[in-house]
Amino acid sequence: MPTFNATPNSKRTRVMTSQSAGTTTVNSSIIDTADFATTVFETLFGTCTTGQVTAIKVQGGNASDGSDMADLASSKITLADPGTGLMVVHEVVESVYRYLRLVVARSTQNVVIDGVVAIQTGAHRAPTTDDSTVQDRTVLVSPATGTA
Q1: In this structure, are residues 131 and 12 in contact, taking their beta carbons and an 8 Å threshold?
Q2: Dihedrals φ, ψ of 21, to 5°?
Q3: What's the Cα-to-Cα distance from 56 to each of 36, 95, 107, 128, 138, rounded to whole Å?
């Protein structure tokens, strides 16, 4: 069976740090999709108060400052109630927009966002370099047990 390594031709970026309990809308930082075929946003939720109504969506645009960002069709996911400990995943393949961001619209009750990670795959140029928000990465192929 062939060996598949997911990390060498991908890039990871933490696009949103943890956000304390709140009911406000929060935008992630902007991701440049120029050298990648696919961008996956993984949104992690902490404690959510019952009755919360939270919508998570992706926006795209061609201005690096986000000034032309608009919602991507069919990207809205509504977080289940209460939502504590859940993760929501968006995958954008071959974006027609160069820049993407994730929007978490919290309303009615408090929702904690543990963070959002963007994983870009299908690199058009190799090798890739992770964002400065990634401390380190390692690839283990058929590792034996022993001292970590």
Answers
A1: yes
A2: -50, 135
A3: 22, 18, 12, 28, 31
pLDDT tens sequence across 39-51: 999 999 999 999 9
The pTM of the full predicted model, rounded to 2 decimals, is: 0.90
Give the residue from 133, 131, 129, 49 showing the smallest Cα distance to 83.
Answer: 49
Contact 122, 38 (CB under 8 A): yes
CATH superfamily of 14-122: Galactose-binding domain-like (2.60.120.260)
**Among 79, 75, 68, 107, CA closest to 91:** 75
Residue among 106, 53, 57, 55 nearest 82 (CA): 53
- What is the C-alpha to C-alpha distance for residues 56 and 106, in angstroms, rounded to an integer? 9
Domain ranges of the chain: 14-122
List, for residues 52-92, the tens digit of each pLDDT value: 999 999 999 999 999 999 999 999 999 999 999 999 999 99
